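Q: My labmate handed me this sequence with no annotations at all. I'd like to see what the chain might look like in three dimensions before we decide whether it's worth expressing. Could you predict it?
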Amino acid sequence: MLVTQLREHQAKTKYPNPDNYIFSREDGRPIDPDHLQERVLYPAMDKAEIKRTSRAYGLHMFRHTAGSIGYDKTGKMKIVQRLLGRAQESTTSNIYVHTQEDEVAEVAELVAEEIFSKMQELQDFSGGLVN
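A: Here is what I predict for the chain of 131 residues:
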């Protein structure tokens, strides 16, 4: 879907050759990412009332978002590693895939349920001798 959208966009530009940039300046040169960040991304974030903190936001945040969404949807770190073009799965896991606090709490509940159910089974089996 994304490739199709990008190809359609490029076909409508002044520079439709596959060797050209999909998004470019009026003269075909690449867009300066700092300019794009300052003139497009930051104003959009401000309008959406997304707080910006030093070195925490920028165009690179889309890479982190893609990694997190990819893993949330598939549960497959190896696939996300390939999507992001990382050499090591550990880099993908440690840097690019982020967990939500509610997910951590949910897993903690699952662990507690498992432990307490096993304790109940053991108590039932021992006839109440285990405290």
